[in-house]
Each structure stands twice: as structure tokens, then as C-alpha cells.
Design goal:
The relative contact order is 0.13. The chain is built from four helices and eleven strands. It has about 210 residues and is of the alpha+beta class. Strands 1, 2, 3, 4, 5 and 6 form a six-stranded antiparallel beta sheet that branches. A three-stranded antiparallel beta sheet has the order 7-9-10. The longest helix has 21 residues, at about 105-125. The radius of gyration is 17 Å and the shape is globular.
């Protein structure tokens, strides 16, 4: 049981996306603040909860721990948009982080990016999970420790790169690799995520530093 007031995000107000709302929630039983994320997930991907638990099981650091996560039951909790089935989902994480824009120095910023890179590296090498949506919004920090979040678009497997999923392209456009933008049929690989990390650093440095 969690107590919430109102979401601190506003993306659910726009007509596109997953209707994501994030809340700072109070866990009364354990007397702590947690993050409650409410959104509509694409049913064909593994749920974020399963991905977070798999990463935790493999000892991947700099990734929040998932405390709970499940599809919401009920006939009105599923829908289909342009052939994509969406399911209402809620996820609870143990970290309520700050965005990169709240960094107080370039040193802190560089350390947070380094932590996120470690999370990406360990997730791929230890758990065989590729993130595929590296962006400025998916890297946060808590007590100066960086975290890589939002594993909704991740895939498993470190072998031969899978083919692109029809015309569907995952990732945040501003930070996607040039290869993926120019070739819609190109599979998403590790090097594409690393290029996205570079664009995150370039974007944040130019805009805020």
C-alpha cells in the first residue's frame, strides 16, 4: 500500500507516448519514499519488473531495485493503438532520483554518466540485456550515484543482432545513432547505445555547461 499525491511528470498530458505518470510515493509499512510509475506498456516486451529483477539477480549495479510490478487487472486496462496492444502497468522502484539537469558540477555529471555506462556494460555482459533507449531522461542520480533506468525497450541476447522489428523503431530520436536513423532496417547493437551516450553528454554539456 502506497500513498501518493500527484505525479511530478507531465508527459501523460500529451496525445502520444505511454501515458506515463511518476509519483513520489510513501511506503507506510517500511517508512520510506519510493517511486511509483504508472504507464501503458507494450505487451510484446517483457515487463520492466521482470527486467529489473533479472538485472538484480545478476548483480548489475547502478540500476534501481524493483520492489513490485504487475499489470492492472480489468477489462478497461487493455487497449490497442495502431495494431499495438497496450496494457496498464504499475512499477515500484526503491530510488527516487534527480534528473541530470540537477547536477551541481561537471565533475558530478561525468561521474553519473560513468555510473550509467557501468550499468549498461554489466547489464550486457552479465545479464545479456541491451538497453536500446539511452537518453538524458533515462539517466538519474541519487546521493551523487548515477542510475540507468527505463528498461522498457531492452532486449535479451548478446549474440547475432536481431533484425529490426518491422517499421517500429525503439529509442529517443534526439539521441539515436546515425546508423539507426538512416537505416530503419538496421538492428540495434551495443555501438548504437554507446553513440547515444556520447550524444547525451554533448547535449547536456552544450545546454547546461
Amino acid at each position: 500500500t502506497l500513498y501518493v499525491y500527484q505525479s511530478f511528470t507531465t508527459t501523460h498530458l500529451y496525445p502520444i507516448g505511454q501515458g506515463t505518470r511518476c509519483f513520489v510515493a510513501f511506503d507506510h509499512e517500511n517508512r520510506r519514499l519510493v517511486l511509483l510509475k504508472d504507464f501503458w506498456r507494450n505487451w510484446k516486451y517483457d515487463s520492466k519488473y521482470k527486467t529489473y529483477k533479472a538485472l538484480e539477480c545478476k548483480g548489475v549495479s547502478h540500476v534501481p531495485h524493483a520492489l513490485a510490478g504487475e499489470d492492472i487487472a480489468g477489462r478497461f486496462q487493455q487497449t490497442e493503438v495502431l495494431g499495438i496492444k497496450l496494457v496498464h502497468f504499475r512499477l515500484v522502484l526503491d530510488v527516487v532520483g534527480e534528473p541530470l539537469t540537477k547536477c551541481i558540477s561537471t565533475h558530478q555529471f561525468a561521474q553519473i554518466i560513468s555510473d550509467a555506462l557501468q550499468a549498461h556494460y554489466k547489464a550486457y555482459c552479465k545479464a545479456g540485456v541491451l538497453h536500446r533507449d539511452i537518453s538524458s531522461g533515462n539517466i538519474i542520480f541519487f546521493k551523487s550515484c548515477g542510475y540507468l533506468i527505463d528498461w522498457e525497450c531492452s532486449i535479451k541476447g548478446t549474440g547475432i543482432p536481431p533484425a529490426a522489428r518491422t517499421t517500429e523503431r525503439t529509442g529517443t530520436w534526439q539521441f539515436m545513432s546515425i546508423k539507426l536513423l538512416e537505416d530503419p532496417d538496421s538492428p540495434h547493437q551495443v555501438r548504437d547505445d554507446l553513440e547515444s551516450f556520447f550524444y547525451v553528454m554533448l547535449f547536456m554539456a552544450n545546454r547546461y555547461a
